[in-house]
Amino acid sequence: MDYNNKPSHYYNKVRYEMLKYLPKDAKNILEVGCGNGCFIEEIKKTHQGEFWGIEMMPDEAESAKKVLDKVFVGMCEDFLDVLPDNYFDAIYFNDVLEHMFDPGSYLAKLKSKLAPNGVIISSIPNMRYHNELFKLLIKKDWKYCDFGIMDFTHLKFYTQKSIRRMYEEAGFTVRVNEGINRTKSIKPLLYNIPFFFTQMDIFYLQFATVASKN
Q1: 137 backbone dihedrals φ, ψ, rounded to 5°
Q2: pLDDT (tens digit, 9 = 90+) per residue, 162-212?
Q3: pTM of the model
Q4: Across the strands, what pairs with 54?
């Protein structure tokens, strides 16, 4: 897939809302899809340790090398064998897993790379976000875009329930699975009225998940 025509912010956006999920005592951290390293650069303000990254875009990976201790350039699946076992306190996937052909299998294999108390932390777009749900159910449309939930490079689409299932089937215990980047629109509130406010997941653009192997 062609990732070269992505908007300028695609590889250099700091996901501040994902920082709070990092364990305070985490030292060895890997970010899969690290872009130019700006997210890890923010983490380094509060954590000391060793910081690794995997990035498929060569130009962004070169920038990341100035920030991280070690950066692998290419597809993340290609580097499983060179990652140390029982090593990482946290492995981040900020809107990355949905781009993979079989993320569940990859997570299952990656589990051995976590330290005993290590965690996987991910952000995954919510297919039931109110805008996309409206387009599908009311407008009867499924249109891909250059970025966002319907990004044409997305190979998988998830809901809160299916994210949890993916992790559990990969052998993880889900510690956190909550909505982030809540919309300010009142539309989801109105949509919820006939459903007695049982569809509150449609407020959230993404879901943040923290999962451990224990």
Answers
A1: -80, -35
A2: 999 999 999 999 999 999 999 999 999 999 999 999 999 999 999 999 999
A3: 0.93
A4: 32, 72
